[in-house]
Specification:
Blueprint (H helix, E strand, L loop, with lengths): L1 H23 L49 E13 L2 E6 L1 E2 L3 E4 L2 E11 L4 E17 L6 E16 L7 E21 L7 E21 L4 E12 L3 E4 L3 E5 L4 E11 L1
Antiparallel strand pairs: 1-5, 1-13, 2-3, 2-4, 2-12, 4-6, 5-6, 6-7, 7-8, 8-9, 9-10, 10-13, 11-12
Length: 263
């Protein structure tokens, strides 16, 4: 009995020594539940390290992992559309100087621009657009139809701050330029004054301020939402018989749905 126990102990000890030797030389199976890091000589197609391997020394000299940002510099196209809320204004002329309050219905704005991003933070573009609304009321006046439109041409500068590796991009910007201001009416009149009808246009100074955020859909496309403030100088139109009609500049606040395509 004693001899049997002795041989069992020797066999167990020899097996443990052999197993340890095999482990040290990578000849034994790696047990992830026993060890957090496999031996240096161990390799397995099923093993995936918790952290990615460090980049080659030539690619990253400080040995840290770089944050990936998509290539944002280059040409782009963007478009915006949404409801426009026109502020109240006052007439300046209706043949003679006037000061009657004028209000508008909810209008709309649409614009499109092509531009160039110098880097992930700064870009410039040229914008063409439409801003318009129907007149709701002019004190002491009657009309069958009265609409106010703007066709702006603006040069914008825009700053961006990419977040989440460029997948979310808050932006802010502004632009200046000019616009064709159009007033279209039918039978606009007030007691003891002439009646005017038809469409007339004039050129005005225009400017805007905007901000918002875009979300990346893929490497070329972003969508988002924003706010725009738009204003012009005072428009004045000349109807037949040198009849002057005009009002003070109108401040427009718009909620924008945005789209951007990066080439």
């Amino acid at each position: 009995m004693t001899r049997t126990l002795f041989f069992l102990a020797v066999a167990f000890g020899a097996g443990a020594i052999a197993a340890k030797a095999d482990y040290q030389y990578g000849n034994n199976y790696y047990r992830p539940d026993y060890y957090s890091v496999p031996p240096p000589t161990y390799s397995s197609p099923n093993y995936s390290p918790a952290m990615p391997p460090p980049p080659p020394a030539g690619d990253n000299h400080n040995g840290s992992y770089e944050i990936y940002l998509p290539e944002i510099a280059g040409p782009y196209f963007r478009a915006n559309a949404g409801p426009a809320f026109f502020g109240d204004t006052h007439l300046t002329h209706f043949g003679v100087p006037a000061n009657d309050q004028t209000t508008f219905k909810v209008g709309a704005t649409v614009d499109a621009a092509g531009g160039f991003a110098f880097n992930q933070n700064l870009s410039v573009d040229l914008e063409l657009g439409f801003v318009g609304a129907a007149v709701d009321h002019i004190n002491f006046f009657t009309f069958d139809r009265a609409n106010y439109y703007n066709l702006p041409i603006l040069v914008n500068i825009m700053g961006s701050l990419p977040l989440q590796n460029g997948r979310i991009i808050p932006y802010i910007g502004g632009g200046v330029g000019g616009a064709v201001a159009i007033f279209d009416t039918e039978n606009l009149t007030t007691p003891a004054n002439p009646t005017i009808s038809g469409s007339e246009s004039t050129a005005v100074f225009a400017a805007q301020f905007f901000l918002g955020v875009r979300f990346q859909l893929n490497r070329h496309m972003w969508i988002g939402g924003g706010y725009k403030y738009y204003t012009t100088s005072d428009p004045t139109w000349t109807y037949p018989n040198d009849f002057k009609f005009g009002f003070k500049s109108v401040d427009v606040n718009a909620v924008m749905f945005t789209f951007l395509w990066k080439f």
